[in-house]
Amino acid sequence: MNKAEKAVALFREGFSCSQAVFSAFSEDFGLDRNTSLKISQPFGGGMAHLGEACGAVTGAFMLIGLKYGRTKADDLAARDRTYAKMRQFTDRFKALHCSIQCRCLLGLDLGTEEGMRLAREKNLFQTICVKYVQDAATIVEEFL
Length: 144
Description:
Distance between the termini: 17 Å
Order of helices and strands: HHHHHHHHH
């Protein structure tokens, strides 16, 4: 099973999009499953169902940070490399889906009762979000 398949399996198991993408790669960075699930949990639904950056995207951003992020304040090269990788990821994701914003990708706001109800009624998590999880995992794997 490749990483994208693992991310999709985690998502279908009931974890959020951010958890699915981030946790699919966690062992590669020495993180156990429970720790990675806890770290990434608040980012689902566009950051706590706020409809902001897609959780699959933020899961990928966290992974890029783990791979390239700086650990010394004066390491500006690492900072710039990390931001460049994040921009490259974003460009690739947007080329497929036009946006990285959850609210735009779903066409509704998960932060409202109405938005959440419609998302569930339309089965958007299993029909649309699963594709975002798969694509984010596929793209970020190329960067790692």
